[in-house]
Structure formats: C-alpha cells, structure tokens
Amino acid sequence: MRSVILLAAVVSLLLLVGSAGAADVGTAGVRNGTTVNIQSGGQSYPAYITMPDDGGSYPAVVLIHSFNGLEEGYRVMADRLATEGFVVIAPEWQTFEEAPADNVTEALVRDTVAYLETRPEVNSSSIGLTGFCAGGRYTMLFLPRIEEFSAGVAWYGFPYSGGQANGTPPAEFIDNITGPMLIIHGTADQASPVADIYRYATDLDEAGKYFELKVYQGEPHGFMIGEDGELVETSVAESAYQEMVGFFNKRLVGA
C-alpha cells in the first residue's frame, strides 16, 4: 500500500485515542422535526426535516442514514444540527428496497435537493451532504455527481465498493469532485478497513482534490450510533460531531 504519511498540507489527519467519558452529543440542543414526503421515481419517500426556530434563510444538509435505516440517533443528530443553524433533511432511502440500485438512491437524493430548493428557509446555493456507512459511500459517490452539493462529510464510507447493489465504486469518480470533503473514520473499522481510506486519501491527493481526514484510533465501524439505534455519548463521538459542524460552518456558512 502506498504511503500516506507525507500527504499534502490539505490533509488534516489526527489519531485520537477513544475514551468512555460522557459527552453531550446525544442530548444537547435536541428539538423536534417533522416528516415530509419526497416524490421520486413515482413513489413517495418519507424524510425527516428539522430547522432553526428563528426564521431566515439557512444552509442545508442532506443526511443519508446507514444500512440500518433512519434510527433515532440520526434524528437526534439532525435536531442538534438544526440548533447549529442548518436545515437538515434525512430521506429514508430504504423505504421500498433494502438495497436499491445506486441510480434509484441518486434520484431520491436529487429530488430531496429539489424539495429543499422550494423551502424559503433554505439558502439553495449552500447545500451540503453527509452520510454514514452506506450513506458514507453515497456521500463519496454523489458529491462528484450532484452539482448542487457544495461540500460533503463521509462517515466510515466505502470508496472502493459497489455497495449492496453492485454499483460503481465512488473512487472511480474522483476526477469529477469539485467540492471539499471531510472523511471521518476509525482505525478498528473491520467493515471498511482504514487502509482503504488511506488509499482513497492518496488518490484524492494525487488528483488535486481538497479533502480533510479525521481518523480516530481504535474506533470501530459505525461508532456514532449504538446497537440500540441511539447516539453514542463519548468524547470521541462529541469530537467527531464537532468536526462535522466546524467543516460545514467553514464550507457552507462561511463560503
């Protein structure tokens, strides 16, 4: 495997040892959103949407859940992001198929963006994408393919996998990336080995694509959501959440 130790300065790589200390990622700023329906491919998909209370026009984030569905932890995370000043929408992409083809999910994400553009609360020129597990793969896949996205945060994704439906690996679209990407991963990820992330980082760097990389020592796949579907409350989870917020503040709010 090619070394990534000497990646260009655009890479921000920090190995942090996980700890079990309690943090407020699962509870701070929680509020209630609502469910809307996104029409896509002749079908109606539920999507959870939440936004700041005080009116105005805000940047938006499309959140793509993992292969385990839109668990409660994602709703809580979306609610908290809303208190940070973002409109957040999470479409339930598995509503009709457990493993839909990539083009089906892409169409849903495009239609979700189109829905956001109809909302007066949304600054349609400032929309980001984030996803977890399968959603992390979708973030890597759709950031280069959907031009409305200004930035993306990919959590423990799969850059060299075609996914459950045997689609195209995201790494094949590196040359099409125009927006910055933050990649968040753990060194103990067995489902998506961190070696693949280092390889992807090298490929991004060689292509001259801006990215940031945050790697947490000892963290497994899916470290933000527990087996109960709730947000994990550790200092690592809080740190990772803040990395995402800071990145979107720079790329969506401060752009």
If you had to describe this structure to a student in words, what would you say it looks like?
By secondary structure, this protein is α/β, with parallel strands linked by helices. It has a single domain, classed as Rossmann fold, CATH 3.40.50. 27% of the residues lie in helices and 24% in strands. Strand 2 and strand 3 form a beta hairpin. It is globular, with a radius of gyration of 17 Å. The N terminus is likely disordered.
Shape: globular
User: How helix-rich are the residues, as a percent range?
Assistant: 25-40%
CATH third-tier fold name = Rossmann fold
Count of alpha and pi helical runs: 5
Structural descriptors:
255 residues, alpha/beta, Rossmann fold, nine-stranded mixed beta sheet, 5 helices, globular, disordered N terminus
Short characterization:
With 255 residues, the protein is of the alpha/beta class. The protein has 5 helices and 9 strands. The protein has a single domain (15-253), classed as 3-Layer(aba) Sandwich (Rossmann fold).
